[in-house]
């Protein structure tokens, strides 16, 4: 019988799907989750308290001769991690980096626009990115980015872009308004100091999500 999963901080569709034995697209495209899909748009950006319908698993039968050996391959669910690295508003391009996710080290080079792009395990929650030559180090939390419509989501994006330096857990209305005005000024938006629709659209464009 279908049941409801209530989203907690750090959850995303891929991690929830893996937990219950589904593919991400199966849950994301399930008719019962259509309203949430239209609301959130991005399956990797949810908000605590969102409700996701988990349908019953369907058993599949695969016919085969009883005396033969049959190999079945389990699909390991991955998600694409992307992060653009900037220093003084300039892309950190062509630099070697070390990305550590759940104890697994990945060495590669940023592309020409400073992007780090790697497939990671769908249930990964923490990681670390180090670019020694640029003297940059980031602690990463996967699935913790809240929707841009939420106050916490705006703060996180502005912080990641270097516009906001307050803490999400405290009342930072004055700092948040100043950060929004600075962002709006930089990108030619009307300086309302509010999280309005044009600002949300530009934040998602610049931040990449």
Describe the structure.
By secondary structure, this protein is an alpha+beta fold. The protein folds into three domains: 3-54, Membrane-bound Lytic Murein Transglycosylase D, Chain A (Roll); 78-141; 151-207, PGBD-like superfamily/PGBD (Muramoyl-pentapeptide Carboxypeptidase, domain 1, Orthogonal Bundle). Helix content is 26%, strand content 24%. It has six helices and ten strands. It has helices spanning 13-20, 24-28, 34-40, 151-160, 173-186, 197-207, and strands at 3-6, 51-54, 78-84, 86-87, 90-91, 96-101, 104-109, 115-121, 126-131, 136-141. The strands form four sheets. The protein has a four-stranded antiparallel beta sheet with strand order 7-6-9-10, with no helix packed on it. Strand 9 (126-131) and strand 10 (136-141) form a beta hairpin. It is globular. It starts with a strand and ends with a helix. The model has no long low-confidence stretch (mean pLDDT 87).
